[in-house]
Amino acid sequence: MKALYFAWVRERVGKSEEEIAPQASVATVDDLMTWLAEKDEAYAHAFEKKSVIRAALDRAHVSHDARIAGAKEIAFFPPMTGG
C-alpha cells in the first residue's frame, strides 16, 4: 500500500510518500496510524494527535474506523480550512 503524507504530517514524518506493508492485525485507519506511530520518533510525533488527522483511502475521505483491506493508497493530512 502506498502511504501519502501532506502538510505538517509530511514535515514530521520527513517524506511525502512511501510503500508500507502492515501486518494483518492492522485492520483500520486507526490501527494503521498506531502502527506507524510505533515505527520511530518522527512517526510518533506525526501521529501523536490521531484525532485531528484526516485520512483518505483510494482518494475517498474515510473515518478512522474504516477498514484498510484492499486499499492501494492511503493519504494522511491535517484538517483543511477554506478561504
Summed over residues and divided by their number, the pLDDT gives a mean of 95
Largest sheet: 5 strands, mixed
Order of helices and strands: EHEHHEEE
Name of the CATH homologous superfamily: Beta-grasp domain
N- to C-terminal separation? 33 Å
What is the name of the CATH architecture? Answer: Roll
As a whole number of angstroms, the C-alpha radius of gyration is: 12 Å
Order of neighbouring strands in the sheet with most strands: 2-1-5-3-4
- Tally the helices: 3
Q: If you had to describe this structure to a student in words, what would you say it looks like?
A:
This protein has helices at about 5-15, 30-35, 40-45; strands at about 1-5, 15-20, 55, 60, 75. It is of the alpha+beta class and about 80 residues long. Strands 2-1-5-3-4 form a 5-stranded mixed beta sheet. A hairpin with a 2-residue loop joins β3 (about 55) and β4. The radius of gyration is 12 Å and the shape is globular. The mean pLDDT is about 95.
Summarize this entry quickly:
The protein is globular, with a radius of gyration of 12 Å. The chain has 83 residues and is α+β, with helices and mostly antiparallel strands.
Key attributes of the depicted protein:
about 80 residues, alpha+beta, Ubiquitin-like (UB roll), 5-stranded mixed β-sheet, 3 helices, 5 strands, about 25% helix
Outline the fold blueprint.
Layout lengths: L1 E4 L1 H7 L3 E3 L9 H9 L3 H6 L7 E4 L2 E3 L10 E5 L6
Parallel strand pairs: 1-5
Antiparallel strand pairs: 1-2, 3-4, 3-5
